């Protein structure tokens, strides 16, 4: 569970860093660049920690995908960027893709845990059989 929290914090740091970059480029404020460098670095560090237990494909898809959703939303609200019908369709497809990747990873991890428990019970059966053969 803690690794999912690291992933969520990595997403927040990425969004903050990217929005700070935009703010700095619009306002000319150098502090925004410092915030950007700090937050982007923090984001990668937190992502590196998260992928210790979260599958890389899932973590990266969530990190980048959710980041894009929030960055686009805040860019429209704070920086008056346009949101065309094509961009909205892209965001909807992005959310669908994230959902499919997440669902696919749950099914894959469920089947791999079934395989490992099956292998474990096979090992127990084989050990019992070997013991019986030695005794005979």
Automatic annotation (TrEMBL):
GO terms for cellular component: plasma membrane. Forms a complex with MdtI. The gene is mdtJ. Belongs to the drug/metabolite transporter (DMT) superfamily. Small multidrug resistance (SMR) (TC 2.A.7.1) family. Gdx/SugE subfamily. Belongs to the drug/metabolite transporter (DMT) superfamily. Small multidrug resistance (SMR) (TC 2.A.7.1) family. MdtJ subfamily. One of its GO terms (molecular function) is antiporter activity. Gene3D superfamilies: 1.10.3730.20. This is Spermidine export protein MdtJ. Pfam families: Multi_Drug_Res. NCBIfam families: PRK10452.1 (NF007767). It is a multi-pass membrane protein. It is found in: Cell inner membrane; Cell membrane. PANTHER family: SMR FAMILY PROTON-DEPENDENT DRUG EFFLUX TRANSPORTER SUGE (PTHR30561), SPERMIDINE EXPORT PROTEIN MDTJ (PTHR30561:SF2). Guanidinium ion exporter. Couples guanidinium export to the proton motive force, exchanging one guanidinium ion for two protons. Catalyzes the excretion of spermidine. Residues 107-136 are annotated as: Disordered. Keywords: Cell inner membrane, Cell membrane, Membrane, Transmembrane, Transmembrane helix, Transport. One of its GO terms (biological process) is xenobiotic detoxification by transmembrane export across the plasma membrane. The chain crosses the membrane at residues 30-51, 58-79, 85-103.
């Amino acid at each position: 569970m803690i690794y999912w929290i690291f992933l969520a914090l990595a997403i927040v740091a990425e969004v903050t860093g990217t929005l700070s970059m935009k703010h700095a480029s619009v306002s000319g404020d150098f502090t925004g660049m410092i915030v950007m460098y700090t937050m982007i670095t923090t984001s990668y560090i937190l992502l590196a920690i998260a992928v210790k237990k979260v599958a890389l494909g899932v973590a990266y898809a969530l990190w980048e995908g959710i980041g894009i959703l929030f960055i686009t939303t805040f860019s429209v609200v704070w920086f008056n960027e346009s949101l065309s019908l094509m961009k909205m369709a892209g965001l909807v497809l992005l959310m669908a893709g994230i959902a499919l990747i997440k669902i696919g990873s749950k099914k894959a991890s469920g089947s791999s845990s079934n395989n490992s428990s099956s292998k474990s019970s096979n090992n127990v059966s084989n050990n019992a059989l070997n013991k019986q053969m030695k005794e005979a």
